[in-house]
Amino acid sequence: MEFLDGTLALLCAFALLAGFIDSIVGGGGLIQLPAMLLLLPGVPLPTVLGTGKVSSAAGTAAALRRYMGQVPIRWRAVGVAAVTAGVFSFVGARLVSRLPAELMRPLVLGLLVVIAIYTFWRKEFGSIHAPRLPERKEPFYGALIGLVIGFYDGFFGPGTGSFLLFAFVGLFGYDFLSASASSKLVNVATNLTSLAYFASTGHIVWHIALPMAACNMLGSTLGARLAVRKGVGFVRVLFLVVVCGLILKLGWETFKA
Fold first, then answer.
1. C-alpha pair distances (Å), 257 with each of 96, 106, 234, 249, 252
2. What ranges do the domains of the chain cover?
3. Apex CA 224: angle with CA 211 and CA 111, to 5°?
4. Do residues 143 and 95 lie in contact, with contact meaning Cβ atoms separated by under 8 Å?
5. Where are the transmembrane segments (predicted)?
6. CA-CA distance, 126 to 124, in Å (whole number)?
7. pTM for the whole structure
8. Which residues touch 29 (CB under 8 Å, ≥6 apart)?
């Protein structure tokens, strides 16, 4: 399987941009996946997804490494969420072949609209890091978030990072920056689960995946660094932009369907 140097350069550029956005508020798939589908015509969809997952997993891990030590992460609660999400992401991926995932689109679209309106009108939402749950209860709620969002990520996927961010802010009382850092740990778990599946089934083009992964890591590192420097307000604004992008994307797909 051969690709022109120009095609690979474009894929790497989109991977860098996707890593930058995803490291701050999630939503990198909005950029990377459509670019891969456009630039890799004729490549089977599972292979496109598997190749892109290498890039996404590497970028998410790079972002998490950048956040560690600079942003408070409640490791016990978030760790439980990550493990649970990894398990149920696999369950969701197995179930997707048996149920029509298209049924999820109108529901997810409605939830994203509610999230956008709520975040826009509640100006103080996510501005202060004030964990509201007792520490002994956080792992239970972390497991609940991991179960629901992990299953969703494996079954359908779009907006996973944004849902994680909103859950950590709304339920746990984290600010947007801490929620972004926490969501990266959960994303690492779900990405690794998916990556293991695609690798085991041979759906990865490694000479495309590895350069894209390097660029995604660079974008993620730069994005996480900017988020730490700019603070909560910057993350909040970008979160709203990405959620609105998801609404437009899913709305268009729902309208076409």
1. 18, 11, 35, 12, 9
2. 5-256
3. 95
4. no
5. 33-52, 73-91, 103-121, 141-174, 194-219, 231-252
6. 6
7. 0.85
8. 18, 22, 52, 56, 157, 158
